[in-house]
Each structure stands twice: as C-alpha cells, then as structure tokens.
Amino acid sequence: MNLTCDVESGKPPALMEWKNRNVVVATGGPASLIYTFIPNVTNHLQSLMCIAFNNVTRITLTKRVTLHLYFEPTVKIIPSGHIHIIENEALLLDCNYTSNDNWNTSVIWKYTTDGHITYTANKKLKLDNIKRNDAGHYTCFVSNSAGEAEDSVIVNVLYPPRTPANIKAFTQSDIILVKWTADYDIGLQKTIFVEYRKHYESRWNQVSAVNRSTVIINGLDPGTIYLLRLYSTTAGGESNKTDEIIVKTGSRRLCPQYSR
C-alpha cells in the first residue's frame, strides 16, 4: 500500500514526515512524500499523520488518514465434519462466517439433491424431511471485496434397512439353524434379530447376529413346533418383521424348512 502526502512547498522547502502512533515511519519532501508498507490486521483503523514543516517559519501543517482495511472472510459450517441424520428429519446447517466488508459480502450454499446441483443464498440452510438422495457434500462459499473462503461438510442420511428375505430354517432335535439374505451395502453395522417361541407360548425369545446371515438357536425341546420371525436394525432404524415361520424340531438329520 502507498500513502502519498502532497504539499505546496514554500521557502525554504518544507520537510515532510509520516507518523504512525507518534513513530516516524517515513521522511522526505519537499513537495511529496510516499509511505509504502504492507498492511496487516494490526493496521486496521489506525490513524496515520502526515506533517510538513520548515525550520524558518516554524509553521507546521498536518493531515490525518484512518485506515479501514478489508480482510478475506473466514467460514465454518456448524455442525462440522461428517453429519449423520435420520431420514425424514430436518437438516439445519449454519454458515458461520466473519467479514468486515458487509456491503460486499455474499453467502452461497452449494449441494446436490435428486442428482441436481442446487445453489441457495442464505446464511442458514434448512431441509425439512431430508431424504436419502439428499446425502452428499454441502459447501458454503463466502466472498467479499478482499477474497473468498469456503467450508464443506458431508451429510449421511440414515434410513431403516430392508426386511430379511429368503429365510430358511434347518432343524435338529434341539437346534434350529436360520439363514437369510440381507443387504450389507448400506455401509452401516446391521444387526439381525431372530425371535422364536413355542407355538403354545406367548413370550418371544431372541437371538441376534451382527453383519452375518446365519444364526443357530440352541437348547430347544425335541419334537416341538416353534414360531420364528426376523427383523433387522441399523443406526437408521428398524425394518418390518417378517411373517411368522413354523418349524418343528425332530430327528437328528438336518432338514431344511422354508418360509412361506
């Protein structure tokens, strides 16, 4: 930055100086004096003074200038990082920024929904009833006359898993081996719960398997009819339960019994 001070010099020619906080930072003259420096945050709102004088008339002329510096903005999205949200909940993101150039500051959100890039000019971004196809990167851009800044977060929309399918049950006298097909492509830990009870009882017992597709139920009574049903859970919720499956423990030979 150059600060130039001009004066109509007399006789003898004037001496000139620039002062910052009463410290002489440049001297020269007689008609003009340039003070060159690189401004930083400490110079904001500082008052500098140009002084012109000669040693004969002892007349001193002064002129002050106040520096108002514009800085590049800073920006931080709140909440930050990786955001996990349940499908159909409301997503609220705040583009928290600093800028001392309010007249020339703009805020733009960029994100993708339904495969289309969307731009929104608001400090806060709210999506009611967020859907799984709203997942992805959300970026806030802030700009002013001095520059621009941006921040991004990744939104992961969690949703309930599908109900276990293709269920098969194999029995022996005191065990039931249960197999199923599950969708493990959702990227979340998935727990399968197998509930079972004797056909004449009302209370359900339960065993579980994490990220597996088989489970063994032990300690059953031989020659007894059991009812089975399955469901799965993730951080995104719980699936529907399957229809009840009827199996009967019996011989030692392992025989398959299929869901209806």
UniProtKB/TrEMBL annotation:
InterPro entries: Cell_adhesion_signaling (IPR051275), FN3_dom (IPR003961), FN3_sf (IPR036116), Ig-like_dom (IPR007110), Ig-like_dom_sf (IPR036179), Ig-like_fold (IPR013783), Ig_I-set (IPR013098), Ig_sub (IPR003599). It comes from Mytilus coruscus. Keywords: Disulfide bond, Glycoprotein, Immunoglobulin domain, Membrane, Repeat. Pfam families: fn3, I-set. The keyword Amino-acid biosynthesis does not apply. GO terms for cellular component: cell-cell junction; plasma membrane. It is a single-pass type I membrane protein. SMART domains: FN3 (SM00060), IG (SM00409), IGc2 (SM00408). The keyword Membrane applies. SUPFAM superfamilies: Fibronectin type III, Immunoglobulin. GO terms for molecular function: cell adhesion molecule binding. It comes from the Eukaryota. Residues 1-66, 73-156 form the Ig-like domain. The lineage of its organism: Eukaryota, Metazoa, Spiralia, Lophotrochozoa, Mollusca. This is Uncharacterized protein. One of its GO terms (biological process) is cell-cell adhesion. Residues 160-252 form the Fibronectin type-III domain. It is found in: Membrane.
